[in-house]
Amino acid sequence: MNSSNAGFRRPADAATPGCHCFIIPPHVLRQYSADASLDDATRKSLRDTYVETERLRGLREAHRVAAIGDVNRFAIDGLVHTPALTEYDCQHRQALPGKLVARPTAGFKTVQDTTAKVVEFYAKVLGRNSVDNKGLDLVSSLHYSRNYDNAFWNGHQMVYGDGDNRLFLEMYLSPDVIGHEISHGLTQYESGLRYQGESGALNESFSDVIGAVFNQWLNNWAVTEPRGWLVGAGIMAAPAQAKGFTCLRDMLAPSAKHCLSPQPERYSQLDPSADVHVNSGVPNKAFAMFARAVGGQAATQAVKVWYDTATNRALRSDARMQEFAALTVASATKLGGASLAGKCRGAWAEVEISA
Ligand SMILES: [Zn+2]
Fold this sequence. Notes:
The protein is an alpha/beta fold and 355 residues long. The chain has one domain: Elastase, domain 1 (Roll). It is built from ten helices and seven strands. It has a five-stranded mixed sheet, covered by helices on one side. α3 (106-126) crosses α4, α5 (197-219) packs across α8 and α8 (281-294) crosses α10 (321-350). Zinc ion binds next to α4 and α5.
């Protein structure tokens, strides 16, 4: 199974709206597991992660449907719940959540600290209380499986693999990865964007937007700082960096050679059958262009436009990109008038979408 990709069969349910709320696209795992320049152990890790990723995505649609209309289940009038953060150790097994870590140190401490910062970013920048806006407690499990090359939100909690150390390091090392995955929870409780086609690409893109702006806010970077637009820069292992890969994705330059998972940049380049992590390059670039047209820091205004669109309930769960773009222009008009709306429309025009 290590020497070829003949063992990979497209799952029969691959076209159904399962959710893979992961950071690493399945096709990257599959492609590199067949890369003869990598050692067998690394390729086995990639293959095993791919198989597990495909298994888990089938479980997600049930969570997505269950969460819609269930937002108020824990709400008590007048009582604001502060989200509790807990970490668990999977001890390289796949049973979740694993063993409770009473006193987080090392990687567990990093996850707790960064997750706390995401909660702070949500509150201060977005005016939101955790993923459900009701103070949902956030559970994180580390050391999932062995050499697991992914991180994911499973509908209830965060899960982080350790990576294989050839392509990827521990998944929690990039703050944007943590912000990305937690924001899949936000989408689950708001628009419920379906994980297929253009709505799936929009779901992925929204997580990249929040993850990247969270990372910029954490580092006090302006929109002109190129590092602020990289996704997964902190999880690239030394051998992958030696091959020239500095990130998983680059929102400013989605098709650039330094991206391990390059993406299209314009709407006419979209492949309707491509993975949601591929087509998300188009709305990713639109947001980066918008934020740079606005200037300053993306957390000040630009991200609030995208957040308004993602949460004001006008967005349909099967929205296409043109519809999403028009809604961002409406949000921009609401928050910043004709001038901000013009910058938003201009950014979408750069990726060939008329808003
Ligand atoms: Zn994702």
